Amino acid sequence: MTNMDRVTLPAYTVGPDAFASFADIVLPLGERVLLTGGHTALSVGRPVLERAIRGSGVHIVDVMHYGPDCTMQAAGQVAEAAKAAHAQVIVGMGGGRALDTAKAAAEMLRLPVVTVPTIAATCAAVSALSVVYQEDGGLSHFYRLNTPPVHAFIHTGILAAAPAKYLRAGMGDSTAKHVESTFSARGHAVNHRNALGLACSHSCYEPLMAIGPQALSDNEQGKDTPALRDAVLCNIVSTGIVSILVDEGYNGALAHSLYYPLEELPQVAQNCLHGDVVAWGVLVQLVMDKDERAPQYAHFLDGLRIPRTLAAMGVDKDNPAVDALLQKATQQSDMEVVPYPVTHAMVRDAVSKVERMA
Taking residues 249-262, what's their average pLDDT? Predict the structure, then answer.
């Protein structure tokens, strides 16, 4: 047994010409690549990528549609397709679930994986895990990878043209990474790796407070601007780096713990993106923790037009079934490392205060 801590940080290329470096980075890994992703993502990104690699020596030997969720079965199917095509590299293209499927498939085969995010809703393009779902759609487990993807190609032209709701949700998820990790680690004597991750978490929050609404407006107009690029990098890269660096116990807290049970409500699952619900959960956590940033964060959510009450999500907070879900939130694994015991009553009271704030 070795006594060491190995850290591999993600590499990425960003900009409207991000694919220009694709062959330079991928060819040393292998010339035969399997491309996998969702139908919409492939329809948008595949033609741009194919033009960029034409004549480069990189060959797309097969295209595999994943999905619709990242399940072990879906990852296994991608792995089988890659094996049958004698692929040397797997390229994931799309949103979080598509990229997680590609990463899981590559892990099964011990192949290198590179990612091409077509929306900026999550850090999946650089993180070293896949969120795996059950076949019925429920959360199954986190599949931990040995390393993050070899490289992420963040094409801001594609991202600027994507629906703005995904950038908005990504900003909710990104700000949560800072608020949750610093809350969970409070009072702990952290080592260098965790201290570095916690320091990086500020770049998931403070820049977005300043540029978030402008980035969203630029995205709605299809403009690739400095504000949009910075928001994209906060959502994808900053959040992913924190995820890699900090211990698992510091990677979540109340915001995500509220999301997982509320996802069981049809009106939430059908009408709200992950990051939108998590952003509401951040506000609940700030209120519960008596954090003076709560009013500023509520204003930030208003600027992004993220629903900041259960009522705005179509959920009746006084419904006994909803109250049972709030209690379930206190029992999530993300609540195992917190600076003080968080009770059902505390969460219920904070939710009520957030409803009244609106």
Answer: 95
To the nearest 10 degrees (0 to 180), the angle between helices 294-304 and 206-220 is: 10
Domain 12-161 has CATH 3.100.10.10: no
* Cα gap 232→9, rounded to integer Å: 18
What confidence tens digit (pLDDT) does each residue in 308-354 have?
999 999 999 889 999 999 999 999 999 999 999 999 999 999 999 99
Residues of the chain with CATH 1.20.1090.10: 164-357
Whole-number Å distance between alpha carbons of 99 and 92: 5
Contact (Cβ atoms closer than 8 angstroms) between residue 67 and residue 98: yes
Q: What are 84's two structure tokens?
A: 């049958």
* 47 contact partners, CB below 8 Å, separation of at least 6: none
**E-only strand ranges, the chain:** 12-15, 32-37, 59-65, 89-94, 113-117, 129-133, 139-144, 151-155
297 token code pair = 């964060």
- In this structure, are strands 129-133 and 139-144 parallel, antiparallel, or unpaired? antiparallel
pLDDT at 306 over 90: yes
Q: Does residue 163 carry a pLDDT above 80?
A: yes
Distance CA 84, CA 66 (A): 16
- pTM, 2 dp: 0.93
- Residue 15 burial (CB < 10 Å; 0-12/13-18/19+)? middle
- The CATH architecture assigned to 164-357 reads Up-down Bundle (1.20)
Phi-psi region of 67 (alpha: psi -120 to 50; beta: other; left: phi over 0): left
The CATH 3.40.50.1970 portion of the chain extends over 12-161
Q: Which residues sit opposite 141 in a β-bridge?
A: 132
Tokens at 211, concatenated: 């540029």
